[in-house]
Amino acid sequence: MIGAGAEPPRFDWGLGHYECTAAQLAAASRVVVERAAPQASERVLDLGCGTGNAALLAAARGATVTGVDPAPRLLDVARARAVDHGADITFAVGEAAAVPVESASVDVLLSVFGVIFAPDPVAAAAEMARVTAPDGRIVLSAWLPIGPISEVTRMARDTAMAALDAPATRPPFAWHDHDALSALLAPHGFNVDIELHSHVFTAVSVDDYLRGEFIDHPISAALRAMLEAQGKNDVQTQIVDRAREMLSAANEKPDGFAVSSSYVLAVAQRS
Hints:
Blueprint lengths: L18 H6 L1 H11 L6 E5 L5 H8 L3 E6 L2 H14 L3 E5 L12 E7 L8 H11 E12 L4 H16 L14 H8 L4 E14 L2 H10 L2 H12 L3 H18 L6 E14 L1
Parallel strand pairs: 1-2, 1-4, 2-3, 4-5
Antiparallel strand pairs: 5-7, 6-7
């Protein structure tokens, strides 16, 4: 399930079938890239690139593009897509806290709902600042922790963690909050502006959405594996049933499925 909230620590984003969610987020990737407006002469880094949505869009503008993600399987998908599009993009395995590019080598750093899942926001901010050129810019998107999708995500995580007798997770860093993000990036000389946007998740039906983006999302797949390992398959069934109820109540399209989620687009530049 995509949305605000912290994932189980250090799990493999290559689990499940993130491609479904990535396809849904193509529109948000366009918003981010259009706002960043990379030029043909610029060097672009797509941090947490996943299947390469933003990287492909930046490459189509003529920019020199590198995509970095911690999941080798998703990078393989991104490479195949780049070949299909005839795009010359470099992809590399890397974490937000250890980006495998040279210092000051990036003119435009993009992150479409990627860096917001970094386990260590302070380290991620330091790395983003390190790799960004003095006159470069960072453009990222972050979910607001409100709305039906976010509520379902929290329900699934909290239900699974309670069933596993796991300690409560600490609240995730507020990447969506102007003051919090400013405090994170200001020590590196960045000023931050944010814009509010909305993204609509769609599907043929509620159940179609559940199959494509909830049950088989990497976070859900990780939680399901932990529940199955302890013989608590019934809890996963309870989570899906409750998610169906919540999403049905929030559905904005009676003859299909549509639910809106709010997010911010943040632009950070050095003063």
